[in-house]
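#onboarding

Welcome to the new folks! Below is a worked example of what a typical request in this channel looks like: someone posts a single protein sequence, and someone else replies with the predicted structure as tokens. Don't worry about understanding the tokens yet, we'll cover that in week two.

Example request:
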Amino acid sequence: MIETWMWIVFVVMILGLLALDLFVFHKDAHVVSVREATVWSVVWVGLGLAFGGVVWLWLGAERGGEYFAGYLIEKALSVDNIFVFAMVFAYFAVPRKYQHRVLFWGVVGAIIFRAIFIVAGAELLKQFHWLIYVFGAILLATGLKMAFGGETQVHPERNPLLRLVRRFIPMTTEYHGQRFFVRQAGTLAATPLFAVLLVVETTDILFAIDSIPAIFAVTREPFIVFASNAFAILGLRSLYFVLADMMHRFKYLKVGLGGILVFAGFKMFLSESPYKIDIWLSLGLIGLILVASIAASVLATRDSTSGETSPKLDPRP
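Example response:
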């Protein structure tokens, strides 16, 4: 039984980790090296897995399996976010030393919005049970589109929220360090870094439409959904700096991610039938699909020496 105090303790712990990251370990803007990012990736993954162990001991093996399945799904899908973030940073020509700050606040926003989506989704499923089939259909459609839909296209200039903000808030044409807002001639103006944050945030919200139903396919417990989401997202920044320059090696990853979403869709359809898929079988299949897609990608690109170069675009908003 998940009680209110457990939610409070978990949220305080997440806020504490974020505060340490921002105000202690990444207080000053600097270029995050692959070595530093790798160390932090190991730390975040270790914390995520350790919390899964706590869930296992605290709530039982079944809940532990659900947490690990949800964590693996979100972690895998977050790799697709990395490709999009790389294109957004290239579009706005964001200096590498400022990228961590954008990703940090992007993660904060992602956790807040996902918490809202998870609570709303859980309540909707409780009130309207038939929505599990709607979520299942969304996962099937999204999975097939991801597997066979070709490359992801990003058009920041078409972002409706960014266009709306530009109508009411003036924007500078140059970066001002890590600042999102500056005062010019007594007027508050947004910097291009704020425009980047808006695009990153809205893009992640779109990704959440896929990932949250996928985790609801393996567990209906909101706390497990949120905890697995939060720990997977916390490591997204470090993972970006590890993988951003080698995304061209993940040739078949989208096919694998699409397969995971399709599987999650089928699992959701069968969740109320006598053919309900066991959580341990689910965890094994998700892991197998992910490992197979990565292995196939590495083998297919083993002779590749460099990725595709992003076009050099105007950095001004």
